[in-house]
Amino acid sequence: QLLRARPLLPLSTAVGRGLGGGAFLVALVAYLVAVPTVVSRDQQAMTVGDMGSDPPYRQESQLIQALTKPDDFILVDDPYLAFLNGRKMPPWLVDTSYFRIRSGALSGADVVDHAERYHVRLMLLASDNLRQLKKFADWADERFVVAKIDERSNRKDRALYLAEDADLATARVAVRAAVPGAVEVDGTLAEQVRVRSYALEQDSVRAGGSIGLTVEWEAVGPIQLDWRQVTFLRDASGQIVDQTERSLGGGSGGTSTWAPGRWVFRSSALPIPPKTPTGEYTIGVGLYDSKARRLAPVTAGAGRGTDEVRLGTIRIR
User: What is the largest CA-CA distance in the chain?
Assistant: First the structure.
C-alpha cells in the first residue's frame, strides 16, 4: 500500500533532490570524465600490469625479444614474463614453484623431458627452485651457456641461459646493447680471462648506498682453476676503501669449465661503506685464486703490470 501511495522516483531525480540539481550535475560530469581513465587503468592491469609508468622486466624483455623468435619456447620462473613478450612455455613447466618441486609433482627428469620436447631456446631463472634439481642443473650446464648473471640482494642470482647451438656472437652484441652505458675496455689477466666492457648504473652515490656494476668477461686461453671476481673501490690517493669478492663462473661450474671464447656478463651491487668521505673514487676489477690466496696479474692491455683492471670513476656525495 505504501508503494502504491508513493511510487519510486528515478535515481537521478532522487539524488538530484538530495544533493541539489547543480551538485548532481557536477558529480555526473566528473564521473563521465573519469570513465576513460578508469577503463584505461583496468586494461593496463589486465595486460601489462598496474606497476607504474616503468614497465616491469624492461631489460629481460629486451633480451627475450632480441634473442628469440615469436614461435620459440622459453623457460622462465615467472610465466608473466613470457606473456609480456608473446613467447611460449612448455605447458607442464608454467608452474615451477617450490611447493610443486618439494611435493614431488615436478622432478628434474620432468623438466628436462618437457624442455627438450618443446625445444626450449632460452631460460631465465630468477630463483633456485629448478637449479636445486641435480638432473636439470647438469643438463642445463651441458646443453646451455650462461650469458648473463644478475646478482640479487636475496643471494639468488638471476641467470640468462642460451642454447649451446645459438648464434652466440650475435647474442653477445644483443646482451651488450641491453646494458645501459656499456663502455669498452681491454685488459687480460693471467693470459686467461679478458675484461671487455663495463657499465655503472650511475656516476654518483651516497655513502652507505650501493652502485650497480656490470662487467663483461671472456676466456681467452685455457683455465685450470676457478677464478673469483674481486671488485676494488679506491680513493684519489689509490688506497683501497672497500673490496668485494664473488664467484665469476655461471651455472654449476666455475671458470675451470670455460673454453676459450666463452663469455659472460656479470652484474652486481657494489656497497659503499657508511661515512665514506665525499669525493672521486675509482672502481677496478681483478681475479682471485682463493686456494693459492693470490691475485692474477694483468698480462696485457689496461692495467698491465698490476693486478687490477681500472674501470670508471664515481663520486660519493
Answer: 103
Q: What are residue 164's phi and psi, to 5 degrees?
A: -60, -25
Residue at grid coordinates 652515490: 205
What b/e string do you get for 143-182 counting C-beta neighbours within 10 Å, with b at 16 or more? bbbbbbbbbeeeeebbbbbbbeebebeebbeebbebbeeb
Q: Hunting for cell 539524488 — which residue is that?
A: 15
Is the CB of residue 268 less than 8 Å from the CB of residue 280?
Answer: no
pTM: 0.81
- Neighbouring residues of 119: CB distance < 8 A, sequence distance ≥ 6: 73
Q: Counting runs of H as helices and runs of E as strands, what totals does the chain give?
A: 9, 15
pLDDT tens per residue, range 273-305: 999 999 999 999 999 999 999 999 999 999 999
Q: Cα separation of 174 and 74, whole Å?
A: 17
Label residue 15 exposed, middle or buried (CB < 10 Å: 0-12, 13-18, 19+): middle
What is the sign, positive or negative, of the torsion defined by CA atoms of 193, 62, 127, 214? positive
Task: Characterise 239 by phi-psi region: left (phi > 0), alpha (psi -120 to 50), beta (else).
Answer: beta
